[in-house]
Amino acid sequence: MSWKSKLRGRVWNLGGNVDTDQIFPGYAMAAPADKFKEYALAGSEIPDFAKKVQAGDIIVAGENFGCGSSREQATVALKEAGVGLVIAKSFARIFRRNAINIGLPVLVCDLEQQVKNGQEIEVDLVSAEVTFCASGEKISGTILASNVLETLEAGGLIAKVRKQLGGRT
Amino acid sequence: MNQIERYLAIAAGKEEVHAGEDITVKVDLAIAHDITGPMAVEQFKKIGINHVFDAKKVVFVLDHIIPAATVEAKVLHNVLKQFSQEYGVKLYDKGEGVIHQVIAEKHRLKRGEILIGADSHTCMAGAYGALAIPVGATELAATMATGTIDLEVPDVCEIRIDGKLQLGVYAKDVILHLIGYFGTAGFTDQGVIYTGSLMDQLTMDDKMTISNMGIEMGTMISYFADPDQPVGTVKEVYTFQAEDIPASVACPPNPGIVVKAADLSSTKISQVVIGSCTNGRLSDMLVAAEVLRGRKVAEGVTLLIIPASVDIAQQMEDQGLNRIFREAGGMITSPGCGPCFGAHMGLLAAGDVAVSTTNRNFPGRMGHRDGKVFLASPRLAAESAIAGTIVTPGMVVPLGGLADELEK
């Protein structure tokens, strides 16, 4: 898995309070892992998101993104469908940690009112700076903690733990 | 330090810890179920070690889709069966009940012990003083390998509730009222300590109902204080008077939209669910059975009764509750999660309206996105089942008319 600290992509603005039942609905819970991506946002107002999303697209949301269930299927589905980054005003705790743990970057930044669907933005994950590609205007998010960047750079928590336990069986 | 910090410090092997500090704590029990467990197992195998940190401290419970409703669900069961055989960890695969209830009954942790669970309602164990932290599958896999978890010490708030609940008002109303007050992100990443004179009157069942839904306010830890030690320094103390808490209902589309039950009267319903890790315990069933005794479920309403564990199911049978439910027109299912999370056993179609004692009512939570779920107490749910509309407790059975109320 290659870590990219600079990402550029098209925005999907999903608004506030997007819960995990909308990101990955209960009826899909027993789906095998290779099918998760087909259900990305299947319970939301854009049920055909998985068909429309392109690799590198960026989700922008309001408050409490990913609230509800601990189902990691929600983060995996978004990542495997092609989402490169999720930016929200705030995240629910478990979703935020799940995303980082599987190597899906998340950034806290209040963009919801400032971007439209399809707009291009560029994000520097190290400086937490978002650039609107059309205008060149910049806005700053919350800098990611060093241990979060470490996990993302490693490609997720499992790679980090492998390293940590290296040699031990 | 406050009580949560004191126990985190012990688990981290430190003299003291402070909010915001990154620590690594020893884990006393790591749990997962048939939806999160197989993912955890897959991630664990990628780590490349041939044993879990302690085979006695990893437990799996099949509860979400058991009996398997689809071939895919059975494949997930089999992943856990195989792993439990290979690695010697305990698997509950006989329909023993919802994971949080099974852990409370068979693996109850001591106060201050650390429970890590790949299910958001793991926080329920805070009712008996565990520091219970919900995680996803990958984080659980890491804990299965290392026996530890990396955490930040959370800010901790105290919720103090004094006084007595009014008749017809239950633990479920308390937590719904709090979620309504603080919002679904009210305590994101924070710990909450429950205190106050109300706690002396609450049963363990009641406390589990309250701690269970802490995650609906975003909490990292929901914890009932040890009355025998000082609470310690917290970031904020919020004070409530129990008498001010009304019979409450959380309206769609999220558990934070809480209104007085009285404001919803005459909303027609088509399904009632009494069960789940939130409200599927014997005390919940006793209240529901008393309401339903000698009465009939309304035309056009399906009533589902789902015990949270097989032990509870046995007690329901021993105490004659099942006959009462059946004679009223209720359907009793096997213990487990039931339709709570929308995979099987009682899903809603567009236009359906359910009153449910479960914990979430997001769009599509119990089936179709346009099916509505109203969250409430077992008393309110049972009375609504008879009325066929959402009612406030007392409209079908007079307040003070149930046996436990007569004792008070």
UniProtKB/TrEMBL annotation, chain B:
The lineage of its organism: Bacteria, Bacillati, Bacillota, Clostridia, Eubacteriales. It comes from the Bacteria. Keywords: 4Fe-4S, Iron, Iron-sulfur, Lyase, Metal-binding. PANTHER family: HOMOACONITASE, MITOCHONDRIAL, HOMOACONITASE, MITOCHONDRIAL-RELATED. This is Homoaconitate hydratase family protein. Its cofactor is [4Fe-4S] cluster. Belongs to the aconitase/IPM isomerase family. Residues 19-225, 262-388 form the Aconitase/3-isopropylmalate dehydratase large subunit alpha/beta/alpha domain. SUPFAM superfamilies: Aconitase iron-sulfur domain.
